[in-house]
Structures are given as structure tokens and as C-alpha cells.
Predict the structure.
Amino acid sequence: MMRALEDELFPSTPGKVKIDRAHAAAINRQFYRCFASTSTMFLWALFLIALTASYLSFQSFVDTSSRYFSASWGGLHWERQIRASARPRRADGYSVLVTGAAGFVGSHVSLALRKRGDGVVGLDNFNSYYDPSLKKARKALLHNHGIFVVEGDLNDARLLAKLFDVVPFSHVLHLAAQAGVRYAIENPSSYVHSNIAGLVTLLEACKSADPQPAIVWASSSSVYGLNDKVPFSESDRTDQPASLYAATKKAGEEITHTYNHIYGLSITGLRFFTVYGPWGRPDMAYFSFTRNILHGKPITVYRGKDGVDLARDFTYIDDIVKGCLGSLDTAQKSTGSGGKKHGPAQYRIYNLGNTSPVTVPTLVAILERHLKLKAKKNVVEMPGNGDVPFTHANISLARAELGYKPSTNLEAGLKKFVKWYLSYYGYGPRGGKSF
């Protein structure tokens, strides 16, 4: 029987030598060993694939968990901090979300709101446009006064939705923005990301909130652009921006008007005129002039065409704070809910300036007096970088409707700034400073 089977498996072929049975048995054994080896390899391959998949799944879990636990927002403790910070300390007090709270204007207004008993929650992304350590120091100052600042991006719709879910904010003070005229030449996309996309993300969150908050936000005097009519009034043309920064702020005014019209959001835009003072921005001229004068380095003073000195309507930070508070106090409630408009809503734009322009050489002379040092000046013609030769605010509308009345001139304001600067940076008798 076995022989017949072997003969069937290994038949004789006419004209060829018949295969030896012993040799055939050896081939048979090799075949089975090979098959067994292949099966084993297949099983090992399956095992390795399963092991790899398990590792990748575990790694994904670890990465997700890491992102969850390292996130700068979320969780019960975070929500308790938000609610405590947003809780008003006075009767009929506001609950205000302040974007850009670790910024120059944002930190000052947040402190003023807290001082009078309003609830304040801050939001800031702590970007590196200028030294983030200054922003961290402002955050620490706010923390010492019971103000919680969330570190997050204005374009994070999930974060904004969560904030409005945790707290029914009565007001939003939107001060976050990519600032600076000249930096737009180097990094234009940052202006679109922050000043346009970020604004839209915030407005989307506000129009979907229930209740909808009243919104006060920072536009800019730069929207007047190449307008040569002075002083600048809110009714003047603003369709000739001289810089991308100005264009994004003008776009912001058009966008906010649209959300007011469609969704019933109460919106007030504030056109700030060259804000200065303690805790200011290092990219501003008065700040960099002070630093360079103290270090014996030259400063660059620009002049307009035909040797005309540049002039700015310098506005002290305390006066800007008054204008922001006045805008919040006179803001009417939004008229929508759940993204639907139920009636016309308030829409306003105001200039906030000092209405007393001062030339840049005069600014330098005041700093020299307060620092008791002479500046090394390089006077050059203003390049085509988006700057305008002068600004001058007509503040009659803000005076009439907000009770806005600036009270600090440049001499007094720079004296306060220099005092803060010397204290904060630790300027020594030999002109050194410590950080």
C-alpha cells in the first residue's frame, strides 16, 4: 500500500532514472520541516505585528494622556480658579473676560477692574514678540491681586467655549492683538492670525454664548492712516491704511460691525493713541530710548519729509484705563442669544487720546531731564515702513458720552515711567542693569 502511494507520488518517467525511495523520503522530511519552519515564522510575524500595534496604541495613549495632564487649562481645580476669579466683589459688579491680560493695557485695566470689585478672568498666549518675562511679571502682579490668567491662544475655539461654559461673562474686554507697525514687514501672517482670525474666533464664541456679553475692544489710531485732516475724528475716512497692522485693525472694525448687525452683539471699539507708561511695551520708542540712553547707546530719531519732526498724541496709561472703564460702564446689553439676534444692538467707536501732540525731539528732551543723561541721537528720514508723520485725537465724542477726560501730560507721565523703569530693571549708578 505504502509502495503504491510512493509510486504515485514519485512515478517513473519513461527515459529517465527512477528516484531512489530513500532519497525521496529525505526530500519528504525536508518538505515537512520547511513547512513547519514557515508556519513558525508566520506565527512569529503575527506576534511581532501584534506587539508593534500594542506599542503604538500604548504610545498614543501615553501621548494623549501627556497632552491632557500637561494642558494649561481644564479640570475641576482649573474651573474653580476661573469661577473664583470671575466672581464680583461688589453689588451689580461685572464678570469680565480680558484678553491680552498680561499685556501692557490689559494688565492695567484688569487691576483697575479688580480694585473696584469686578470679577476678572485673563487670557493671554505669552508670545515672544517682546520679552515674555515682562508678561510673566505682569501675570504675577495680577495673581497677587486675585486675578487668574489662562495661558491659551485666542484661536482656540474649544478653550473659549469652555470659558463661556464655566462663567456667564457679562462683558468681554478684548485687548489681545499682534502689536507694532514695523514688525508687520517681517511677519505679516502673525497679524492676520491674531488680529483677524483671533477676533473672529472670539466673536463666534460671544455670539453663541447665553447670555451674550457686551464687548469692548481695542482698535487703533493707526486706522486713520494717510488721512491728513487733523485732529482725527471718528467720522473721518479710514480707508487708506499705511501699514498692515492698521489694515487688520480697520478690518476688525468692519468685522465687529457685521457681528453687531447679524447677531445683536453690543460692541464698542476704542481707537488708542500711542499709549505709554509703567509696565509698557519694550518695542515702543519711549521705552527703547530710555534703555539706550542709560546704556550710552545711540537712539534713532526719525524725521518726516522736508525735515519735519514726527509728532504723536501720547496718552498715559491711566487715562486709557479710564476710557476702558467708561466704555464698559456705558455698554448696553447684547440683544441676541444662542447666535440669534432679537433686536438692534449698540455699536460705538471712540478715540482715546490726550489731544495734545508732542514731537519726538521733545519726548527725548523730557527723558534726558528725568534720566539726567544726554542722548546720542542719529537723526534720519523716516523710512517707508508704515509709520505716519503725526497723530492727533479729537476726543469730544468720548468726553461727551463716556465722561473721558485725560489728566496726565507727557512730562508727568514720563516721570512716572522712568521711576518704574529704574526700579524694575535695577539700573545702577554706573549705568548697568540687572534682570
DSSP finds 14 helices and 15 strands in the chain. Residues 302 and 383 are 8 Å apart (CA to CA). The first strand starts at residue 95 and ends at 99.
